Fold this sequence. Notes:
By secondary structure, the protein is α+β, with helices and mostly antiparallel strands.
Amino acid sequence: MAIFGWLRRLTTLRKEAAAPVAPTLPAFKAAGCLFTDGHHVLAGYQPRKVKPFMSGIGGARKWGEPHQDTAIREMVEEIFEPLYEVPPAFYEAILENVKPRASLQSGGYVCLVFTFKDLEKILKIAGRYRITSRVYRKLPKTLLDLLGTRDASGTADWKPEITQFGLLPLVAHPESAPFVAPEFLEDMKFYLEMLEAAGRPQPQR
Length: 205
């Protein structure tokens, strides 16, 4: 889900204590998680959209789900791309041990806000439950692992929804202005073409 509409409101959360999650919201249609340290936010690149973009982590509600369940389920699916069915106890362990810092709602979308330290707690719980992953040969233990060891190559008949994660500055950027300079996009395109011409060596895992 798009995250930029939350940025102005989230700048007030930098050093606040954890806030209680709102009661179940029957009217919501989708939910997700936003991870931040008050200066940056975690975002994922979704290249298979009609118009590819960087986005937050979240998705549509399943019938009857509370918003917390939707947000955590979507987060687990998009970060780990589990190879096998995730045990319900894993979701329960996250909900019990990692509390959101805030719960925000805009229209039919609910966003649970966590810190990067919270994310690393979730990664630790994933290791404890031995969650399988299509995109990590070894489950990440840190934010840096999550960013740097993700293998998004997929297979001939399957590709992940989010290929790569990255950090974006937590800023209230004008909606009318590009978030990334076209010249910088050209720099990245040129570098990728150079890597391809050189055989593009695989990153070390």
